[in-house]
Design a protein that fits this description.
- With 224 residues, this protein is of the alpha/beta class.
- 34% of the residues lie in helices and 16% in strands.
- The chain has a five-stranded mixed beta sheet with strand order 5-4-3-7-8. A two-stranded antiparallel ribbon has the order 1-2. It has a two-stranded antiparallel ribbon with strand order 6-9.
- A hairpin with a 5-residue loop joins strand 7 and strand 8.
- The longest helix is centred in the C-terminal third of the chain and has 19 residues.
- The radius of gyration is 18 Å and the shape is globular.
């Protein structure tokens, strides 16, 4: 069962979502002002002094994203003393998540549920909510959770893609996000600037709107 689920997740990531393009390499970091699980509003300008900014789009409910929670936390812990900032953003509209998509989690992706998740898993990185409008998510264009965007000191996008090459820790042999951070800290060119992502597809508001329209259409037909 799990093998089939992961195969489907990888397929979703491989297909991508052409209606929501990914931020182009070299682009400036899109601005954001989003609520975090700490009760504060976090803004891009808050991190202006950092030599490297890592933005990870991730969520609660996705089994692949869950496997990466501690890896994101370890990245933040390992590089914090070097001034690197790691910011996670939850991109999904909770209303667009189907019941069957919650079979790997007992909570969904609302801000209140994000607070539950970070307390339960002892996560300390900034975790922000964009499920209300998805305006920031549209600007960055994450195709799946997780999806990593790494910016240099001038806040130009220098790497975009996966954290590493496998959700199975024993099969990881390329640390793509860490390699990009190390290169930027050493003022070197990022060796690999783009990698494909894998995980659960971003749950866009259009999906929730489409489902609502189908339900209304079904109720209308049944009443005729």
């Amino acid at each position: 069962m799990w093998r089939m689920i992961f195969s489907l997740l990888l397929a979703f990531a491989a297909w991508g979502q052409t209606t929501h393009p990914i931020l182009a390499l070299g682009s400036p970091a899109p601005d954001f002002s989003l609520p975090g699980v700490d009760g504060k509003i976090h803004r891009l300008a808050d991190y202006a002094a950092s030599p490297v900014l890592v933005v990870v789009f991730t969520c609660n409910h996705c089994p692949i994203a869950q496997m990466y929670e501690q890896r994101i936390q370890q990245l933040e812990t390992d590089y914090r003393h070097r001034g690197v900032v790691v910011v996670a953003i939850q991109p999904n509209d909770p209303k667009a998540i189907r019941i069957d998509e919650l079979d790997s989690s007992d909570i969904s992706d609302s801000l209140d549920e994000m607070k539950i998740r970070v307390e339960y898993k002892h996560l300390h990185y900034a975790y922000l909510y964009d499920g209300e409008t998805q305006s920031v998510t549209r600007a960055y264009g994450p195709q799946a959770t997780p999806h990593v965007f790494i910016f240099d000191k001038d806040r130009k996008l220098r790497y975009e893609g996966r954290m590493d090459n496998s959700y199975r820790k024993e099969m990881v042999n390329t640390l793509d996000a860490r390699d990009a951070v190390d290169a930027l800290l050493a003022n070197r060119e990022v060796p690999v600037k783009h990698t494909g992502v894998f995980g659960c597809s971003t749950k866009w508001q259009e999906k929730a709107a489409s489902r609502t329209a189908r339900k209304r259409s079904g109720r209308l037909k049944s009443s005729l």
